[in-house]
Amino acid sequence: MTGAAVRVYCWVVMNAPFPPQRSRTLIRLQDHLQATTGRAIGDYGMIADGDTVMVCMSGGKDSHALLDLLLALQRRAPARFRLIAVNVDQKQPNFPEHVLPQYLEGLGVDYRIVEADTYSVVREKIPVGKTTCSLCSRLRRGVIYRVARELGANKIALGHHRDDVLETLFLNLFFGGRMKSMPPKLATDSGEFVVIRPLYYCTEKDIAAYARGMQFPIIPCDLCGSQENLKRRTIKDMLQGWERETPGRLDNIFRGVQNVTPSHLGDPGLYDFLGLTPGGQADPDGDTLFDPPNDKEGFLRLERSEGTRIHFVRRQWSAEATAVDAAELAAASGRAAGQD
Ligand code: SF4
Question: Does residue 136's CB lie within 6 angstroms of at least one atom of ligand 1?
């Protein structure tokens, strides 16, 4: 059957989502996203042999991409694991109930549609004009955990991506006074499940382009009538503005999220500042009092100490000179410690 015939057959006979024609660009993007997702899964040990992974599907672009990429990886991965797609129908007005079941049937994946009217609870409890997201997502989380238990799933996959991670980091910093974001992997408080975010390394831009190319049947995310979270919108605009001004800045910040130096922040719970004393040993991760020159073009050397004045002179770099200076500095720090 030709590609066009398959499309017509899927659409007319099976009433299933047809495979869109894929351009080279889309295939490249698909390869990239599959590799990026696979790397995140491997780096953080998200999925293991024998796992049952419940894939949370809101019907938005991110969750569609998540399921599609996990299915592709499931076909190739050496590990055997089970995927179950789950959508919580929160009974929001105008929710198109038929869209996801029809799409998931067409894919031939194991799936469940969970009917849980969180909408009316939220409407009843939260006064008009107030933000509803916090109660709504708490209720949804409770439903998701109960369903995971019911299905015997040990992993719960969510569709958050790199940009969600960055936005959450700055939201917490700007409005919560905490340096905290979304982890790639998290044990639930009950200890029963591990929540995983396989799209952790994927950018929203790539996911949006992929969702468009794949023609996923997207369900709009504003059915609840909730105001868009203005704080998140502000942070998103700020980050996108930075990226426009300095391309690559978001990649850098994201690398920073994965490369933290607790001794250079200020959280006494993460680093023992009270117990910190000069140990006489160089710390490979710590500051050096005088950084060795990268270009070996010269550096400063302690020359003499006279009364209230201490003099440094500049001189050419050499291995011997560095050794002498290291010895002098060690001796000086010994003297200083003795004076204390
Ligand atoms: S946007 Fe709507 S559905 Fe989503 S968490 Fe907020 S209230 Fe719930």
Answer: yes
Pairwise CA distance, residues 61 & 163, whole Å: 14
Is residue 112 domain-shared with residue 167, that is, in the same domain?
Answer: yes
Contact 147, 116 (CB under 8 A): no
Global pTM reads 0.82
Question: Distance, CA 138 to ligand 1 centroid (Å)?
Answer: 10
CA 330 – CA 324 distance, rounded (Å):
10
Structure tokens at 10: 């899927």
Residues 7-58 have pLDDT tens digits of 444 444 444 445 567 899 999 999 999 999 999 999 999 999 999 999 999 9
Give distance in angstroms: CA of 60 to centre of ligand 1.
12
Q: Per-residue pLDDT tens for 153-199?
A: 999 999 999 999 999 999 999 999 999 999 999 999 989 999 999 99
For residue 185, the domain's CATH number is 3.40.50.620
How many angstroms separate the alpha carbon of residue 27 from the centre of ligand 1? 33
229 and 305 both lie in a single domain: no
Q: Of 263, 288, 314, which one is at a domain's C-terminal end?
A: 263
Write out the residue range of the structural domain in which residue 305 sits.
Answer: 299-330
For ligand 1, say whether the CB of 229 is within 6 Å of any of its atoms: no
